[in-house]
Write a structure and sequence with these properties.
Helix content of chain B: under 10%
Structural class of chain B: mainly beta
Distance between the termini of chain A: 28 Å
Strand content of chain B: over 45%
Oligomer: heterodimer
Distance between the termini of chain B: 40 Å
Structural class of chain A: mainly beta
Shape of chain B: globular
Largest sheet of chain B: 7 strands, mixed
Largest interface: A-B, 23 and 23 residues
Strand content of chain A: 35-45%
Order of helices and strands of chain A: EEEEEEEHEE
Number of strands of chain B: 11
Number of helices of chain A: 1
Radius of gyration of chain B: 14 Å
Radius of gyration of chain A: 13 Å
Number of helices of chain B: 0
Number of strands of chain A: 9
């Protein structure tokens, strides 16, 4: 069982928008602005898509956006494209005892 | 550009140890923490710990304490992760990943190595 809770799967049609939630606790997501999101295609290494909750690294499409409310972080992908089909993982700093926690991952299917 | 290149796949017997390397290039090795993350087949990501390449200081997830050792060789800009007393459930792809931030760690990983498959089987 992962420390952060994500839906196992989400789907959407090309051009639509989807949102993936990531629910933690007041000890991790709720306490720190240090949530990151990773995209992982099959048999590939994860790729950073969002850091510090809502910031995009250079080169990441502005179709990807992040937000947080309370203990829940969210990743929104707008204008879905076929190449967005992948697994997405959230991650949070969790303090000086647990340090780092990941979500269980969400499989995005582009219909 | 920043690159992390890991050593090749390993097959080990239960009870053995494995040491995975992560050779870096394209930046000053001692300026950024290196993290290790693993992924069992069909499963999610699991953080194992970090090493500060400047000081050699380490921080391990509680689950791996006593079995994992992270080291580095600054002369060749390479980090290592050794896991001992291997069990079948240690079968996984092991990734190294550089911390995004200069000189500190905030659990934001970019970029990642290509991964090293470690198979534990009798």
């Amino acid at each position: 069982q992962s420390a952060l809770t994500q839906p196992a799967s989400v789907s959407g049609s090309p051009g639509q928008s989807i949102t993936i939630s990531c629910t933690g606790t007041s000890s991790d997501v709720g306490s720190y602005n240090l949530v990151s999101w990773y995209q992982q295609h099959p048999y590939k290494a994860p790729k950073l898509m969002i850091y510090e909750g809502s910031k995009r690294p250079s080169g990441v499409s502005n179709r990807f956006s992040g937000s947080k409310s309370g203990n829940t972080a969210s990743l929104t992908i707008s204008g879905l494209q076929a190449e967005d089909e992948a697994d997405y993982y959230c991650c949070s700093y969790a303090g000086s005892s647990t340090f780092v926690v990941f979500g269980g991952g969400t499989k995005l299917t582009v219909l | 550009q920043v690159q992390l290149v890991q050593s090749g796949a390993e097959v080990k017997k239960p009870g053995a140890s494995v040491k995975v390397s992560c050779q870096t290039s394209g930046y000053i090795f001692t300026n950024y923490y290196i993290h290790w993350v693993r992924q069992a087949p069909g499963q999610g990501l699991e953080w194992m710990g970090w090493i500060n390449p400047n000081s050699g200081g380490t921080n391990y997830a509680q689950k791996f304490q006593g079995r994992v050792t992270m080291t580095r060789d600054t002369s060749i800009s390479t980090a290592y992760m050794e896991l001992t007393r291997l069990r079948a459930d240690d079968t996984a792809v092991y990734y190294c990943a550089r911390e995004l931030w200069f000189g500190e760690w905030k659990a934001q990983f970019d970029p990642w190595g290509q991964g090293t498959l470690v198979t534990v089987s009798s």
